[in-house]
Amino acid sequence: VSVMAAQCMLWQTSPAATELETRVVDWMRQALSLPEGFSGVMQDSASSATLAAALTMRERALHWQGNKKGLQGQPILRIYSSDQVHTSIDRAIWVSGIGEDNLVRIPVAGRLRAMDVTALEAAIVADRDAGMLPAGVIACVGGTSTGGTDDIAGVAAVAKRYGLYLHVDAAWAGSAMICPEYRHFWAGAEHADSIVFNPHKWLGAQFDCSMQFIRRPEDLVRTLAIKPDYLKTHGRDGIINYSEWSVPLGRRFRALKLWFLLRAHGLENLRTMIRNHVAWSEGLAARLARQPDFEIVTEPMLSLFSFRH
User: Fold this and answer.
1) Fewer Cβ close by (within 10 Å): the C or N end of the chain?
2) What is the pLDDT of residues 194-205, one digit of tens each?
3) pTM over 0.85
4) Domain boundaries, the chain
């Protein structure tokens, strides 16, 4: 794919890449059983997708004035997550200018270390009462360390009640959602504003291959698009320029590797692979639990568990 050296920033620089990306993203949307209202874009990593989401949270909360006026003189923005999210969330908060002190860590509870939804709502109300501006929530499905998984439906209800943007980070666990029996782990994801998962993690695609689903792409485009004359596509309405959906201008032909993967293996074979991995994880955890020198620290969440020797 790299040898082709396709420059995929605009429809006019690579029409085939743009059209194939649109098609492959929709294939995956259907495979994950997400509603038709979602469109999407292929990013280089979940880190980039989360940064794009954080920037959109910022702009939407500030009525699209952050890019123009900066954050000086604006209300203090607040973003909410648990302590189970990936460190890329911290970096997105830094780079977006929101600031680490304004990433509010909500306590977790239960086997899946889910964000306490009641505590989330209380934190939002307290911040509003203190004159701060809640902007978004970043929820987790399959945290990197222990598989922490939030109650997406509960978090989504709170986010909707207070007008907050909801981003769901399912970077590794999202691949398992092609299997219907695992979709309960992200029940309510259809209410998110954006979702990211990485086919280059558990689906078997080569790096870099990250997919971000978006409910209102016009908000993302309004946040990130810059349209000088030399980037305008003249005479064509309704086309997609994916460089307006991501931070970098230049883009690789990421969709082709995923197209090859899906065509070569098919969804059923990929589902079998994931089911095997989950079964092997559960089997290994059960064997270790019977050994006196081993202790299961966190129970299996899909293919991930931790133990102590």
Assistant:
1) C
2) 999 999 989 888
3) yes
4) 2-265
